[in-house]
Specification:
Helix content: 40-55%
Shape: globular
Structural class: alpha/beta
Distance between the termini: 30 Å
Strand order of the largest sheet: 1-2-3-4-5-6-7-8
Strand content: 5-15%
Largest sheet: 8 strands, parallel, barrel
Radius of gyration: 18 Å
Number of strands: 8
Number of helices: 13
Order of helices and strands: HHHHEHEHEHEHEHEHEHEHH
């Protein structure tokens, strides 16, 4: 299985330097990363929205080691919000944030991350949009859910992400569905031990369906994060059985993956949101995309071989 090997490499500084310097890297990274700056990503956001789609924007970067870096990450989102406001795009463009970027792992990191993300959530609300807290490895989740609960006291539209491969997630889903949360469900893209997560793909898929059923039958707003045609069909059927209208749930897929499917779902009347990442610290995000699908890794290797 290549996936766990690639995920391990995502934490290696040596591999980071090697991949960054490889001749074919820039071409492949551009498939998944919409640009490095706000100026580069804005035209892509406008083009995506013009197709009848919506977006969630992620400023990539996770390896925060100082408070100054955490403040810089917060400021990058504040700059993004300002640009979205200027262009009148707030209604169609939300934001996804990783609390690790806001200093979660530093000393006193829980409070630091809460303070930083609250400022982003407040600014997002002021332009009519929302923020979703991304899930990271299992050791960070208690802090993430606590911050989510705290933010929802003043900003109930704040969303969060749950990962189907974790044993704990069915219980988390029941709690979130009962309190009316916006919840994105994904399979999971971190290297997790067998003590806390399913390792078999078939078991992960079964867990995904069980959890999605909980969300669809609950009082919240499910966001189906998947490119798997089977799970997309299951999501549609579960929504139908739960009596949900098309605007009472949505699909989310990654920028650069199955773009035709984005447009097809939107044409059918579904809310379809494209997860669009940008920024200079792309390595960790890029490696998880390679780990998720062998075809992505093959594309990367071929690019390295054929690049002159």
């Amino acid at each position: 299985m290549l996936g766990p090997v690639i995920l391990a490499a995502s934490r290696s500084d040596k591999m980071r330097r090697f991949v960054s310097a490889a001749p074919g890297t820039k071409q492949v990274v551009a498939r998944f990363i919409a640009g490095e700056t706000v100026d580069q990503v804005v035209p892509i956001v406008e083009e995506t929205i013009a197709k009848g789609l919506e977006v969630t924007l992620d400023v990539v970067g996770e390896d925060i080691t100082t408070r100054e870096q955490a403040y810089a990450a917060r400021d990058a989102y504040m700059e993004l919000i300002e640009r979205l406001e200027d262009l009148g795009l707030g209604a169609k463009a939300e934001m996804s944030v990783k609390l690790s970027m806001f200093g979660q792992s530093l000393e006193g990191g829980h409070e630091l991350a809460l303070t930083n993300v609250r400022q982003v959530v407040e600014a997002a609300a002021s332009i009519g949009t929302t923020v979703t807290l991304d899930a990271e490895d299992h050791t960070t989740l208690d802090s993430m859910f606590a911050i989510h609960e705290e933010l929802r006291k003043d900003f109930p539209q704040t969303g969060c992400v749950i990962q189907a491969y974790l044993f704990r997630t069915e219980e988390d889903a029941r709690r979130l569905a009962a309190n009316g949360s916006r919840v994105r469900i994904v399979k999971g893209a971190y290297k997790e031990p067998a003590e806390v997560a399913y390792q078999d793909k078939h078991e992960i898929d079964k867990a995904y369906v069980r959890i999605l059923k909980i969300l669809m039958e609950g009082d919240g707003y499910p966001m189906i994060g998947s490119h798997d045609p089977r799970l997309i069909a299951v999501g549609q059927e579960l929504a139908r059985r739960a009596g949900r209208k098309l605007d009472e749930y949505e699909f989310q897929m990654l920028y650069g993956i199955r773009s035709d499917e984005h447009v097809r779902l939107a044409a059918e009347g579904h809310r379809m949101r494209v997860y669009t990442a940008y920024g200079t610290d792309w390595y960790g995000y890029f490696m998880r995309r390679l780990a998720e699908k062998p075809a992505n890794l093959l594309f990367f290797v071929r690019s390295m071989i054929t690049k002159n």
